[in-house]
Amino acid sequence: MKDNGIIEITFHGRGGQTAITASQLLAEFTFEKGFKDTIAIPIIGAERRGAPIQAFTKISQDKSIRTYDSVKDPDYMLIFDTSLLSIPRINETIKEGVTLIVDSVRPLDKNKLPKNVKVFIVDATGICIKNKFMHSSGPILNIPMLGAFGKVSGYYALEIMEKVLKKEFGEERIDKNMAVAKDAYESVKEV
Length: 191
Fold this sequence. Notes:
- By secondary structure, this protein is of the alpha/beta class.
- The chain is 34% helix and 23% strand.
- The protein has a single domain, classed as Pyruvate-ferredoxin Oxidoreductase, domain 3.
- It has helices at residues 19-33, 88-91, 124-130, 142-153, 158-169, 174-187, and strands spanning 6-14, 37-42, 52-60, 76-79, 99-103, 118-122, 134-135, 138-139, 189-190.
- A 7-stranded mixed β-sheet has the order 2-3-1-4-5-6-9, with helices on one face. Strands 7-8 form a two-stranded antiparallel sheet.
- The longest helix is centred in the N-terminal third of the chain and has 15 residues, at 19-33.
- It is globular, with a radius of gyration of 15 Å.
């Protein structure tokens, strides 16, 4: 958390991996949990399916958020595709003290990261495939990644996710959403 009391999160994915929706849902989850202010900041341009995209969420437990600019020094980074870590502008934001949550089955080489970087992995893609949580272009990664984030950060529990997801997507889709959220919540691990 920054000195200004605002927690900043970046989402790095590829077009179609639902990272922008994840940033919006995170704002809703934390607001529902009782955070005073939350904001989702999507970066939408000429992206196409498969192109690198990013989105940001800022949350504050007790202050109003007055800045709407992109995040340059995040507290947390959610990485939906490990190949994005080779992109310099993404790699440069991995600074001392950041917590990474990465969709991966293999641990990252922490020797290539700054000191005091915490790394958590979750097989979000595998969870989606196992639960048939897919759309036409592949796995829907937002819900498992947010399940993992809830566990790692402690900012909200599965019950908050369920309440918001029912409101957003309806009763008919809640069982599948919560199955992947719970699987990720329980399987995310620090490396």
